[in-house]
Structure formats: C-alpha cells, structure tokens
Amino acid sequence: MASRPSISQSQLFLKKPHVIFSPKPPIFATPISKPTKSLNLFVLKSKKMAVVTAAVGPAAAAAEEKSKKRYPGEAKGFVEEMRFVAMKLHTKDQSKEGEKEAQEKPLPKWEPTIDGYLKFLVDSKLVYDTLEKIVDKADFPEYAEFRNTGLERAESLAKDLEWFKEQGHSIPEPSSPGLSYAAYVEELSKKDPQAFICHFYNTYFAHSAGGRMIGKKVSKKFMLKFYKVEHMVQMPKGYRVSVAVAQTVLNGKELEFYKWDGDLSQLLQNVRDKLNIVAENWTREEKNHCLEETEKSFKFSGEILRLILS
Ligand code: HEM
Description:
Blueprint: H1 9-12, E1 19-22, E2 29-31, E3 40-44, E4 50-53, H2 58-70, H3 78-88, H4 114-137, H5 154-166, H6 176-191, H7 193-225, E5 227-234, E6 240-246, H8 264-280, H9 284-292, H10 294-306
Parallel strand pairs: 1-4
Antiparallel strand pairs: 2-3, 3-4, 5-6
C-alpha cells in the first residue's frame, strides 16, 4: 500500500497565488452577484484574488457529479486525468490505449544507430539535469515535493555515458532537441507551475513505461547488429579487404538509465500521490491548463526519441 506523502498545506500555495479554493468566504469578501443555491462567487477587495466558496446541498452534489463526467479520470485523482490525456496521444502501435493515427509519412525503419542512441542519451541527460535542478531550486514551493523521489535519471545517465566513453565511444555534445526542451522547461518552471508539472509527470512516467520498452528494443538490436571495421588488408592485385569485427555494443549490459533503486511501481505510486495532493489546490482552469500542455511534452520528447534513429 502506498504511503501517503506529507505535504504541509502552506507549502502547497504558489508563491504568486491568484486563485484560492476556500470552504468559507472570508469576512472581507463581498458577493459580486446575488448568491445562488449552487455556487457563490466572491471577489476579494484586493483585485488579485478570487475566492470560490464550496456549494452545499443537492445542487452542489449535482455540479460535482457533472464535473466528474466532464473530466475523464477525475474521480481517481488528477494523475489519472494526466494519464488519460497522455495515453490518447500515443499512436495505436505504441499502446493499445493510443488513439492517434500514425504519422502520414511512414516512420523510418527501426534501425537504431549507436551514434543516434548516444545523442538520445546525451539529450535525455540534459533534460533530466534541468528538471532535477528545477525541483532542487524550487522556485515554487510545491516543486520541493519532487526532490529525491527515486525516479531521478541524471546521475544514472552520467554513469552510462561514462561507461560508453570507457568503451571507446566519443560522447557528443547535446543537440538541438535536448537544448530546446531544456530551455523550454527551464523558462516554464519560473512562471507556470501547472504547465511545468505536466512536463515533469510525462517525462518521468513515459520513461518508466514506453521508455523502458524502447531501451529493451535498442539493446536487443545492438547485441546483434554492430560491426566495427578494424582494419583493411591489402590483397594481391590491388584488392583491399576490410576486416570487420563483431562489436557487441552493449554486450549484455543493462544501462543504469533503466534501473531504479527500490521498487519502481512503489516509487511511481509515491509520486502519483504527491502530484494528486499538489493538484488538489489547483482550480479547474489550472488543471485544464496543465492537461493542455501534454501535447507539447509529446512533441519535445518525440524529437529526442527520434534521435535514436538519426
Ligand atoms: C515510441 C514512443 C512510445 C511508446 C512505444 C510508448 C508506450 C507506452 C506504453 C506501452 C505505456 C504503458 C501503458 C499502460 O500503462 O499499460 C505508456 C505509458 C505512458 N506513456 Fe508512453 N510511449 C511512447 C512515448 C511517450 C511519450 C513521448 C510520452 C510523453 C512525453 C509518453 C507518456 C506516457 C505516459 C505519461 C504514460 C503513463 C505511465 C503510467 O501510467 O505509469 N509516452 N507508453
């Protein structure tokens, strides 16, 4: 059973709160319209904040029921809403829950290259470095809840790249997909916590699901495929023959990127619990704003994934 993480209520408020959900109207609030049975809307005298009071009675129950129907997954918590939106953005061949048609132009044949895979690892590391620095710095207090979740990947990627280096591979500099995504989340994290949390969720959870599948596929391919030209041999009559040596790139090694300390499903559940608690303080508009960011998360991550085939 997942242990419920403790998050102090004061930590949950944004540095710059603009909308607060409150069960009772504060005494300095005045109604902007005649209160109705279903919902009373109050605006604080300080123009910055609006306070929505909880409705009571059957009208409230009906409104709540209606909103549950409107947002799939809502009854289970906000993570389920995020998951629902994400799963729909998968193609049918990526996941049976996917609804997106595969791209019109056919994807390149699944032929990963070691150079492409290294680019993918380097760019992924840049993104995880950035996400992990953001939650450490915690410009918004709720980010701090996502420090040391056990899902962190920057350190494990650093070890993997070091290993590749020891095997004689040269490690590329980060390329445009990783640089663009890192710059985007960095900027977003300073001003838009709901959108940032969407990227945080999708990046870590995608890696634990589809990311692991991709890792397995890549390592299977590399076990069989890679040949390195060792040297050329000069033959009589001017023929030159290249001597290729089978190079089992991964040679049975499981990369640290795909290993977690502890039980992964428990680590994921702990983070789901925290995400749900953080999102309890968001208005419906803020939740929708977070959900709408999912598409961007797919776009940026998709570009990085594509590096594997470059
Ligand atoms: C080739 C690309 C991808 C493949 C093959 C893939 C495949 C999958 C699969 C099989 C699942 C598990 C579904 C289940 O729970 O039964 C999954 C979950 C998920 N994927 Fe992907 N995916 C891919 C790309 C992405 C991308 C680019 C993102 C977003 C950046 C993403 C976000 C997610 C999320 C959030 C989940 C839910 C994880 C959870 O509930 O624990 N996926 N994916």
